Amino acid sequence: MKKNDTNKPSPILWIIPLLLIILTIGVIPINLFFLHLPEWISIVMSCSCLASGVAMWLRLKGKYVGKTILSLLGVIAIALSLFGSYCNPYWNSVSFQSDVDFYCKSYDYELTYKQAKDELDYAMKYLKKIHPSFYEGIPPKIQKQYDAAVLNLEHTDPITVNTVAQQIQGICYLLGDSHTHVTVNYPDERYMKHIYRHREAGDILKGLNGQTWEQMLETDSPSFDKISYEVKEYGIEMLLRYVNSLEGLSYLGISVKDGIVYNYETENGEKSDQYAEEEDFLPYDEYMAYNGIETNDSTEESGFVYYEINEEQKAAILTLDSCIYNDEYKNTVHNMFKEIKEKEIKNIAVDLRNNGGGDSRVANEFLKYIDVDSYKEWAYDWRLGYFMVNIPQKEIKNSKYEDLLFKGNLYLLTSVYTFSSAMNFAEYVKDNHLGTIIGAASGNAPDSYGEISAFKLKNSGLIMQISTKKWYRTDNITGLIEPDILCDEQDALDYFYRECQK
Questions:
Q1: How far apart are CA 454 and CA 187, in angstroms?
Q2: For tag attachment on the chain, is the N or C end more exposed, with fewer CB atoms within 10 Å?
Q3: What is the DSSP letter of 230?
Q4: Tens digits of per-residue pLDDT, 80-102?
Q5: Nearest Cα to 226, choosing from 156, 171, 145, 159?
Q6: Structure pTM?
Q7: Closest CA to 416 of 339, 489, 479
Q8: Phi/psi at 273 (nearest 5 deg)?
Q9: 3-class SS letters over 432-460
Q10: Residue 410's domain is classified under what CATH number?
Q11: Strands 281-283, 190-192: parallel, antiparallel or unpaired by DSSP?
């Protein structure tokens, strides 16, 4: 009879270290895609992984190759886990989660002082962790504003969701970074019922209560620090997003208790005032009913990308309203250039006038159809927690689609709404001398912050987005992406067709 080997090591001595290695690394995707976790969880998992490794070496005799391999994997897992939690700018972010409720609680929902301060401190925690301007510590003006915000919360009763948003935004405003701000998405906004009538008539909203938008952005206005912007024109456009709802006005610090006057200008240049009281602000369904708008009769809107060919002008216009890099975009651009080649089109306009940004790869994909061997890309600093990675300006080799190369004239139509990655698209064309910019200057500067990470504040439901990179324009050029042909943004397409006739 064969004698049992009582000294044979238990398989659990191999299994436990392997499982802990998997779990130690696994906290990163779990956090990014499913569940928010405190940073210290990675320390707990790393210590457990280390302890199991030590136990493996002490309990297992021989097996040096296997133990060495598991130990190396353990070291890698611990390094990745610690880096992933303490240096990863997306730790506890909602940027990659698909089931996020982006609505905050009602604008007048009340919070305790502790809840409000927790929101403020959470926002500051991630500003300090991932924003490039905090790399060497909290800037003095930010610390001063934070102390003032805490004091304001202590002396405010009641503290509402809008109160919290105002105090956090007061800090973000000082960064001069239009990407870093509090996003206020109210669940049940009430809209001024006369908006639709004025919009249909072509009236332009010029201000409120006799105050212009420029005056509302001045430091003696209660609204001046409620918007993050780098270009004043873009700041005005952001103001316009708030003033047509009761909740938005409250956030801007504008009361409608005693009524409010909307100052319009008609298409003929005449002044026109619209008085409104609180009862004139209606929930969405009532607003639609009041104005006789049937949602099921509305014209179906085009997608974010589409094109048209004008054979008479030998021109193509690609309208890109968002920088989304997906198959729809790639297929649309491919089909356009295929048709351009077939019809011998000589001029292309990319309409970015309503493009607020997204994925910068849309520009790289588009340029593969342009007959250029390489082009310059900007430099940037990337904040990774305790580290700042400096990426110098580089030359990108263009992976051209040789069978569909376009050798005609390229134009970009831009406006103050041309922002972030859309602005970068224009930067590629402008600074590499690839085409002509028509319209108005971009909504933010190339020398600015970007590449955001978004966080949801648990007590208020507010979304806080924070930049992780500081960009630098190519060849140390400064300033906005100014158009080569300056005109009113609404007339940019007409100017493009004039260029086609030359």
A1: 19
A2: N
A3: S
A4: 999 999 999 999 999 999 889 99
A5: 171
A6: 0.90
A7: 489
A8: -105, 140
A9: CCCCEEEECCCCCCCCCEEEEEEEECCCC
A10: 3.90.226.10
A11: antiparallel
